[in-house]
Amino acid sequence: MVMRGWALVLAMLIGGGLTVSAAGNAGATGVYGVTADWVEDKNRTVGRVFLPGDKELIARHRQAGREVYLTLNVFGGRQAWQLFPDSVPILADGTSLAEGANHGGVCPTHPGWRANRLAKLVVMVREFGGQEGIGGIWLDFIRYPGRWEQPDPELPDTCYCPRCLDAFQRHSNLRIPERLVSVGEQARWIKEQAAYAWVVWKKEQITSFVREARDVLQENSGVQPLQLGVFLVPWRQADFNGALSFQLAQDAQQFAPYVDQLSPMVYHRMVGRDVAWVEELGRYYDEVAPGRVWPIVQAEEVGAEEFEQVLGGVARSGADDVLVYSYRTMLDHHWRALSGFVPSANLIGDPRFTTVAQGGLSEAAAGDAAQSAEPRRWSMGGKNGVSDSRFFHVPAGDGNGPAVGIEAGRDGQGRWSIGLPRCEAGRVYRFSGDFYRGDRNDHHAYPEVEVWGQQERLNTHRMVGGFQRLQTLVTCPEQLSEAESRFSFWNRDPGATFWLKQPRLEPWVAEGEAGAGGGAAPPGATFFPIGVYGAKVENLGQIKELGLSAAVIGMTEEAIAACREQGVHCLLAVPREAERLLTLLQRIDAELDPEAFSFYVNDEPEIHSFPVGTAIDIRRLLKERYPRLATAMAVVRPQALPFYQGGADFFMLDQYPVPNMPLVWLADSLDGAAATVGVQRLQAVIQAFGGEKHAFSGWPRRPSFAEMNCLAFLAVIHGSRGLYFYSFPEITGTTDGREEFGRVIRRLNSLRSWLALENEAVGPEVTVTSRYGLDPAGRPAVHCAVKRQQNTRLLICANTIATSVNADIAPGGSKAALWQDYFQAGTQPLLDGRLRHRFDPYEVVVWMEQ
Questions:
Q1: Is the pLDDT of residue 683 over 70?
Q2: Hey, what's the signal peptide range on this chain (predicted)?
Q3: What is the CATH topology of the domain spanning 351-507?
Q4: Four-way CATH pick for 765-849: 3.30.70.1660, 3.30.70.270, 2.60.40.1180, 1.10.580.10
Q5: What is the pTM assigned to this prediction?
């Protein structure tokens, strides 16, 4: 039961502690294909069954307290072929699917069959729904034809019947040339000229049926709402060259707004995968519909230990429920394991945050309704030491699940809090939740959470007008007081209202692929790019003239040709949608030299909450074709790298500190990123922009030469394996800007043979001898690193603050008496093992051992 209105708000304010189930959860398990020979015994403690449409059987299971679900075969089998001969899909070569396929399948555009299926759905709802009837209906074969249940799937390319070709042209506003008469010619033209439009149209034929099915359930289920689920082919977008989209046209992300549950059919033995794959797929789909994934696993030919491992993977993936295929193949050990299935515990166990059925307002509309829901407000009035803050609640009926909102009080803070169980000292936990904000009038306002006494400012919360999934990692402290065993949702920004729904706290397991293999050197690590954003075909020549060796540019055939002509290493910006990327790769279809090209695969995905699984898919698609080419993504919040480390080889830290942040923001970000992915995988984006058009966002001026020079060398000192300046059009838009930029590039190029070398593991010791010389964190403002080439050492130092600093630098391990100033004439003696220097504001000094 979901509490509503004032009762719920009051309960939120005075609610008690937390209970976490430690026993098997029968309601979280289900079995597919149950028949009339079901025997009630102690091993069969499942809470859900999938049955045929039989009233007596349904009543029997409902009386036993189980939820009952039915399935509807939408576009599978051959039944439709008998009723509608023109429903047989046509392949790209013009032949019929019926002429040799080992499986059936129906053309999804056939109006007669679609009407038949929707009419069948109406009958199922009316005949088997009601207070004591079924709980919902799952759509099966909700896709184009194909046999996926084997390691080497059969993937026919359909449907090119006259009806489909006509509908595609009408809806896409494209025209197949009249000279192309045969189906083969028309299909070939679509692949070459309209592949992306074709896959978008195909997916809509499937998704539109899901929408229509949702409408049927809403219009016919009466007072007892029915859940709508879908059985999904268990593939990622990168699998089988994008076949999930291009051949089967199934898109779980498109389904998600219209269904209550997604059920990927993770039959690992059927498809020749290991047990770990079950968990991987569960996590992949949990990103699409958090809290609404019921994986269905295979029992056939799966032994007791292996089946327990499968169920464990489902639990760790974040799924609260598991289904088993199928009843007829289950043995005693399957029943025993299933009875002990325990979902991964959400340590924020407040029932007021329980996920509810979809189908109400859109997320944005839910947030807007919440902000205007005056009767659902409550003033703390000083309770628990938090004065005049206000809490809001969007009950389940307002759509998309319950949410809690907070406004800060007059004292500048507001908090919603609940008790937590004690955690395991030293263990890492992941917090995730969906956050909403209606505006970004205050660019420095962010929600905060406090977990076991540790406060985390969620400065990845950038989206406006919709819920954004945020996540962060928290390590359980060694010492934890009773008062610290709490979760708190904080708002410390008066004037901003933040909303939270679906908070989750659980032990963290690293997700996805390990990228380039932990801290190992990725492809291209021996090349140190000195590059720039903002490249176009027409300005590549100017970029080359300035001495830049690399550029970020859009991935087009023209750009690839221009990069080759100019001899510039191009970081090709790829589409961040798998279907667009695949169609582009098909069109380019060119050999790319790893010395001349790499791929820019994402831009600050953490502040856009770009799906981790999709980021990994994009990298996989590229690596399958170009395994030796490096991939890179820009990241502004290094704390997000544990989640995205499988999405790229290099991570480009792009902090823009001038003029409002300390320059060490970049250094600290590089160090934080290195702790996760290793220094070998780091590059840096150097701020080279600012001015009137950026003033509102916090960059009223561009960096001076000294600041830009300092940032570039500071990145090298902290291990960056490449530099990209943002951006070429801005910094070269004025004579002064172009000259200052050129000076920085000339300095870097003069050290080109050194830049790609790793820094010595132990950096120089720096001692500040002047009165002023510490950074905002109280550390020496001068940062230094040493590189070695053959028998010579190079010492690079940078003053990170706008004040002169006297410092002694001990390079360590050197017997040289003299060090030459690389950029200035003269040498300096090593006295008592130290070099002494007075650094000007933001000055960079490079010494070479003599």
A1: yes
A2: 1-22
A3: Jelly Rolls (2.60.120)
A4: 2.60.40.1180
A5: 0.90
